[in-house]
Specification:
- With 252 residues, this protein is mainly beta.
- Helix content is 7%, strand content 38%.
- The strands form three sheets. Strands 1-8-5-2-3 form a five-stranded mixed β-sheet, with no helix packed on it. A five-stranded mixed β-sheet has the order 4-10-9-6-7, with helices on one face. Strands 11-12-13-15-14 form a five-stranded mixed β-barrel.
- Strand 14 and strand 15 form a beta hairpin.
């Protein structure tokens, strides 16, 4: 995975966020990340119950590697990279994490920006705000090349409650509508850096599952026509180690 000279790819994968897609949605797990699935959903910062600090280091370990929470709790994970290598913490099921890791090996230049993960350069600190809506185990791992295989993994044990968690909704994961164009939703428009964040379905031409990713754009004029929430159909290509949207139109 290359750093910022590579256009950000908001991935997790519609796979990650939706246990089946996740990465997300694509998932950065499960394809890339459907953050309202078996692992829970993105939390509201105003409703954080408590904060848990997690350290990542070059010994390929998380400290702590085991975290206990209660079903329904919203946790702020404050994650620090104390190593000299790039590390990340990605929440997901074991299946999602393995699937996402395979995608990362296939597309090492991808950078993700899903709510169930944080990717950090050496010495940096970031956070994930997550609501653990279902009892059971939520895994987490670093999916940087070689790190997952080296054992950089951990888990969150979610203790069940008698009361059902409210406010959960089923995620509507966009899917590709044809072999030529993929369906997506605009999540961010970065005019200054000529980037666009799309929560998208499968991109068959790239053999890429659904996820939330950041792309460059071939034609800068496209950026001025877009706003967050727009439903689109688009094509993308891999060019010089980056992913670029080559054409785009409103979804029918």
């Amino acid at each position: 995975m290359q750093t910022k000279n590579t256009l950000k790819l908001i991935a997790v994968c519609a796979i990650f966020t939706g246990a089946t897609a996740t990465f997300s949605a694509g998932n950065h797990a499960g394809s890339h990340a459907n953050p309202d699935s078996a692992i829970g959903k993105a939390g509201n910062a105003a409703k954080v119950n408590r904060t848990v600090a997690v350290d990542m280091n070059d010994a390929m370990r998380f400290t702590p590697s085991s975290i206990a929470v209660k079903q329904g709790e919203t946790i702020r994970l404050v994650v620090k990279n104390s190593g000299k290598l790039k590390h990340e913490l990605v929440l997901g099921t074991e299946k999602e994490l393995k699937e996402h890791y395979e995608q990362m090996k296939k597309f090492p230049e991808m950078e993700h920006d899903d709510p169930n993960m944080v990717s950090l350069a050496p010495g940096k600190t970031g956070e994930i705000i997550w609501q653990f809506t279902k009892a059971g185990t939520v895994d987490f791992a670093c999916l940087q090349p070689g790190h997952y295989e080296a054992g950089m993994k951990g888990s969150v044990t979610v203790a069940g409650t008698n009361a059902a968690t409210s406010g959960e909704t089923k995620k509507d994961t966009p899917v590709a509508v044809s072999t030529d164009m993929s369906q997506g939703e605009i999540r961010k428009v970065d005019v200054d850096n000529k980037k666009i964040t799309i929560k998208h379905g499968e991109i068959k031409s790239l053999d890429m599952p659904g996820m939330t990713m950041v792309f460059g754009v071939k034609d800068e004029a496209l950026l001025g026509k877009l706003k967050v929430g727009d439903k689109i159909r688009f094509t993308a290509e891999r060019s010089g180690g980056t992913f670029v949207v080559t054409s785009l139109q409103p979804a029918q």
